[in-house]
Write a structure and sequence with these properties.
This protein is mainly α. It has 4 helices and no strands. Helix content is 60%, strand content 0%.
Length: 75
């Protein structure tokens, strides 16, 4: 998934469930901003968009690595 500031918050959370906690920690109310774009939600919460995108990218990389290693059979 590419983190796109134009994507709706609900769509981001659907694709990356850990995004809900990340947005909450940044002070973004993902429940009430779910139908807004990430850009609008960040602007509404006074959170720099770059900070949110960077945090979500790190979470996405961690998730991708976890899935890769959990699908690898280690003997």
């Amino acid at each position: 998934m590419k983190i796109d500031a134009r994507k709706k918050v609900n769509d981001i959370i659907h694709e990356l469930p850990s995004a809900a906690k990340i947005l909450q920690n940044l002070g973004i109310d993902y429940f009430h901003n779910g139908n807004r774009s990430l850009w609008d939600a960040c602007t509404n919460a006074g959170v720099p968009i770059g900070r949110a995108v960077e945090a979500l990218k790190l979470a996405e990389e961690s998730w991708r690595e976890y899935k890769h290693y959990s699908n690898t059979n280690v003997i």
